[in-house]
Amino acid sequence: MLPFLLLLCVSQWLLLLSAAFNVANLPGFLHQGSLPFHLETGYVEVDEIHGVELFYYFIESERNPREDPILLWLSGGPGCSAFSAVALEIGPLKIRSERYNGSLPNLVYNPYTWTKFSNIIFLDSPIGTGFSFSNHPLGYETGDKSWSKHAVIFLRKWFADHQQFLANPLYIAGDSYAGKVVPVIVHEILNENDLKVQPKLNIQGYMIGNPSTGDVIDVNSRVPFAFGMGLISEELYQEIVENCKGEDYESPKNAPCASLIEVFNEFKSELMLGDILEPKCNLAAPNPKYIVVSTGRSILQESNKGLSGPPIPEVKCGTYAPYLMYIWANNPEVQDALNVQKGKVKEWVRCNEYLNYTKDISSSLKYHVNITTRGCRALVYSGDHDMIFPMVGTKQWIKSLQFFVTQRWRSWHVSGQVAGYTESYSNNLTFATVKGAGHTAPESKGQQCFSMFGRWISKRPL
Over the stretch 312-345, which tens digit does the pLDDT of each residue have? Predict the structure, then answer.
């Protein structure tokens, strides 16, 4: 009887350890038969006191999953679901952007998925993002430090349950605001590895796209970017430089500077900041005030009564796909297929701007210096038409690291055409622009970013 009880206890412990679920089919995916890639979803508890559970999508490499690198991907915001990256940017799915007709929106295969040569864990974090949840209200209090800490706890628990991947090279990646916490996470992993914390993670480097740093340069660089792009006059640019004297343009302290920034903000308000070439459109905003209405009884009305939908943008807008994503992800059949825990998240939103979030790390720049000088490879890339975190600011903070240039500025190419420009620095840091891309570069320049990532992760020149 005792051996039986012991076996039962061990079995239950293993069940608790492994919350993984293999997804064979996805509603709305236009493909015959099962998924043409291996998708696993699940939850990992990262705070036992408050019952904080982070939801993830794990997609194996289509090349050689037992040897290819593993990428942990974090979306920005903070508060944007990792499913944005799965179905809009670097994953094997793409939302088909077509006028909503009341049926479930369609997904198609993305030929430029980065899972062609890398395993990728897409993590809904920080807590309150996507399908991640807390069993206690205090668990939803989060910030830069707790996000970074939870990501490290997640990784160690995930690898403990997926030990076949422990030897694979590990990279941490993310874009936008996630770019601020990525180097912090790498820093924590390296420190814990030094302390012999198990399981040891084979961390090799990191990658960030159009990243935030927390420094004033993130927002102040919008002014020289706007001038360089011909969006403001030389007179306005010079007056801002002379009167603001480098202070924070988001909260200027002197009256002449504040007045000039007000004029600048009027020009800025006419643009789609994520991509200045795109038409100005409604954002598929979180917790919006509008109800989704379509002809007939929509699948959203039937299946998700009481949910509010995003403001409906025009089909031509880049924000239309996120609007369709909202409808798709809130469908009960979809959530059943993904094995989402029922009743934990009332409404899935792509980006939750109402997080109880504290920006408690003022700048990530010291972390970049720390981890690159300890042997980690780094790729920093920028869509060159992004006005949220412009490339001129990214170039400026990279220069402030005082690394020396190892390969001077040059063009890089895809299919015989210039895809962007790149420069390499000491300590294995590479900077690259993506020509014509916006804030989330892989979303609009999928082929180019696919080639960029494939070359870099394979340790080849761009």
Answer: 888 888 888 999 999 999 999 999 999 999 999 9
- State pLDDT tens for residues 173-198: 999 999 999 999 999 999 999 999 99
Instruction: Give the tens place of pLDDT for each residue, 79-88.
Output: 999 999 999 9
Burial tier of 351 (Cβ tally within 10 Å: 0-12, 13-18, 19+)? buried
Which of the residues 134, 176, 382, 451 is marked catalytic? 176
What is the C-alpha to C-alpha distance for residues 375 and 379, in angstroms, rounded to an integer? Answer: 13
| All domains in the chain, ordered by first residue | 2-216+360-457 (3.40.50.1820)
212, 177 contact by CB (below 8 A): yes
Q: Which alpha helices (DSSP H) does 299-379 contain, by range?
A: 299-303, 320-329, 332-337, 365-372
Whether residue 137 is predicted with pLDDT greater than 60 in this model: the reply is: yes
Alpha carbon 173 to chain centroid distance? 8
How far apart (Å, rounded) are the C-alpha atoms in residues 126 and 120? 18
DSSP state of 24: -
DSSP state letters, 162-229: -GGGTTS-EEEEEETTHHHHHHHHHHHHHHHHHTT-SSPP-EEEEEEES---SSTHHHHTHHHHHHHT
With beta carbons less than 8 A apart as the criterion, state whether 82 and 122 touch: yes
**pTM for this prediction:** 0.90
pLDDT of residue 10: 37
DSSP 318-335: TTHHHHHHHHHHT-HHHH
Q: Does the active-site annotation cover 84?
A: no
Query: Of 291, 322, 323, 324, whose CA–CA distance to 307 is shortest?
Result: 291
175, 439, 444, 451: the catalytic one is 439
Residues facing 42 on adjacent strands: 56
Active-site pick, 124, 175, 215, 386: 386
SS3 content of the chain, % helix, strand, coil (to 5): 35, 20, 45
Residue 386 annotated to the active site: yes
Using alpha carbons, select from 352, 356, 358 the residue that is nearest to residue 131.
Answer: 352
Q: Of 440, 394, 403, whose CA–CA distance to 421 is shortest? A: 394
Contacts of 109 (CB under 8 A, 6+ apart): 31, 36, 92, 93, 94
Q: Report the C-alpha gap between 355 and 194 in whole angstroms.
A: 33
